[in-house]
Design a protein that fits this description.
The chain is an alpha+beta fold and 492 residues long. It is built from ten helices and 17 strands.
């Protein structure tokens, strides 16, 4: 009878904690225990953790209005590679957030923000029609005692609210402390010190055949140099380690369903994610995590051996890059902005006649603003007193040009032209944008320029240009500061 009651209670909690997102704060307070972590700052690592990584694998299931969680495995992911000192995430980036607290005392031991494929999929038209399930992982230091794991999500006011929790006893037979016996070949690209004192990046490859392992190593080295040549990575290069793991495929290239190129590769990377032809993701989280754990890592890059323009970046998950495209340098740097610092895209669709409804909630991303209070701009300390807020620029002319480019790009893609034709269009756009920017009065100023975050109106970016806005490979000052803050989390 006791087991039956526990089962009924578990089912009730599982189904009750799922509701429409706009109703979450109200419902959560009724069904989730009022667990308030006690945040006393970063704890002494050795008092609470082993030098080992616990990987919490779970399934994230739902549709446009619901989400459920189900535990898959709790296991070892190798030695701990994160910081021993910066355990509490004070940046609080991302749409989701998790906290590890000591079960008895409720003391906060570790926390990190994150994003996931489920969260992006949930906003697609498909999610309004069908259910979806994605495999995910959370990684944190191996606790010495029983813990409670809280998963939180932003509500309509962008405040984190607990949506699920579970207790974990590290001595339980359901927790597997065995390490994987790796057979993959690994290599060091850049090493500047112990993993626990540096930000560690792992580079994986998909669609590289056995005969192309030398190419993969060269591509990984080339794009590592590209990343480290951009600010703030260049100034912080001594705080960064980069390693690679080889995963040879049976044939060259990856899955591209839109043009009818069907393949199966070790990491299952594919174009066409969410039916977006150039969006490259992999849904095989477990395989990717198992392979990546061959080396210490905090962040991950997956190079796909393709000429076709494509990539992706999800905060605290991974970056994907088509290694042979003419714009692979741009893709690498831009997508790492998403992956490492949850930077928002600053570009938008230039629809010319369309004006979006008013935006009433300030975005949580560090590099865009709704400018609801221009006297308390997120980056106000960087703004010169002579720079007007909002900051004027020749937006109408630029948007008209953007609309023309967008129309031409859509027509070329529909015609399935060769990749060189698309690259020439991007180059033409790049040069014309330079011409526009060179004439602007505030082209080097930090201010608030309207047009950002997929919104032609109502959202603002901090500078006229940034790699999160155009294909120029330079981060604006605000984005550089955001990335440097993340590097501090892992290298202090």
């Amino acid at each position: 009878m006791k087991k039956l009651l526990l089962l009924v209670l578990s089912v009730f909690i599982l189904f009750s904690c799922t509701t429409k997102r706009e109703e979450q704060p109200k419902i959560i307070s009724q069904i989730i225990p009022d667990i308030q972590p006690i945040n006393e700052g970063n704890v002494n690592f050795d008092d609470y953790f082993e030098n080992k990584t616990m990987r919490f694998d779970f399934f994230h299931t739902g549709n446009a209005q619901t989400e459920y969680f189900a535990i898959d495995k709790i296991l070892s992911d190798g030695p701990w590679s994160g910081s021993y000192k910066v355990l509490i995430d004070e940046l609080e980036l991302g749409p989701y957030f998790y906290e590890v607290i000591e079960k008895e005392s409720k003391k906060l031991l570790y926390s990190r923000g994150f994003a996931n494929i489920f969260g992006e999929w949930q906003t697609t038209p498909e999610a309004a029609e069908v259910w979806g399930t994605f495999h995910e992982s959370l990684r944190f230091p191996w606790p010495k005692m029983s813990i409670t794991l809280l998963i939180k999500k932003r509500d309509v006011n962008n405040q984190f609210k607990t949506i699920w929790f579970t207790d974990i006893d590290p001595s339980s037979r359901q927790v597997n402390p065995a390490d994987i016996k790796h057979t993959e070949k690994t290599a060091v690209i850049v090493e500047n010190g112990p993993a626990q004192e540096k930000l560690d990046i792992v580079i994986l490859g998909d669609g590289y055949s056995v005969k192309e392992m030398d190419k993969f190593n060269k591509d990984a080295k080339r794009l590592s140099d590209v990343l480290l040549g951009a600010e703030p990575f260049n100034s912080r290069r001594n705080d960064i380690n980069i390693r690679l793991v080889e995963t040879p495929a049976q044939e060259s290239g990856v899955h591209k369903p839109h043009p009818g190129v069907f393949k199966r590769t070790p990491l299952s990377a594919h174009y066409g994610s969410f039916d977006s032809e150039r969006y490259v993701l992999s849904y095989d989280n477990k395989t990717i995590r198992n392979v990546a754990s061959a080396v210490p890592y905090d962040f991950m890059v997956i190079l796909v051996n393709e000429r076709t323009y494509g990539g992706g970046g999800i905060y605290n998950l991974y970056t994907t890059v088509s290694s042979d495209n003419k714009y692979s340098d741009y893709i690498m740097i831009h997508e790492m902005g998403h992956h490492m610092a949850a930077l928002a895209d600053e570009y938008y669709t230039s629809s010319i006649s369309y004006e979006a409804p008013p935006i009433t909630t300030e975005p949580w991303e560090t590099n865009i603003t709704a400018l609801l209070d221009k006297n308390n701009l997120k980056w106000k300390d960087l703004v010169d007193e002579n720079t007007p807020i909002p900051t004027p620029w020749n937006k109408v002319e630029f948007d008209n040009f953007g609309y023309q480019i967008q129309h031409e790009r859509d027509s070329l893609r529909a015609a399935k032209v060769e990749e060189e034709v698309m690259e020439d269009l991007f180059l033409r756009q790049y040069n014309k944008e330079n011409e526009y920017f060179s004439k602007e009065q505030y082209k080097d100023a930090i201010g608030a320029f309207e047009g950002a975050g997929y919104n032609q109106y109502g959202l603002y970016r901090s500078q006229l240009d940034c790699i999160m806005y155009t294909r120029h490979t330079v981060f604006c000052k605000v984005c550089q500061m955001s990335l440097s803050n993340v590097i501090d989390q892992y290298s202090k």
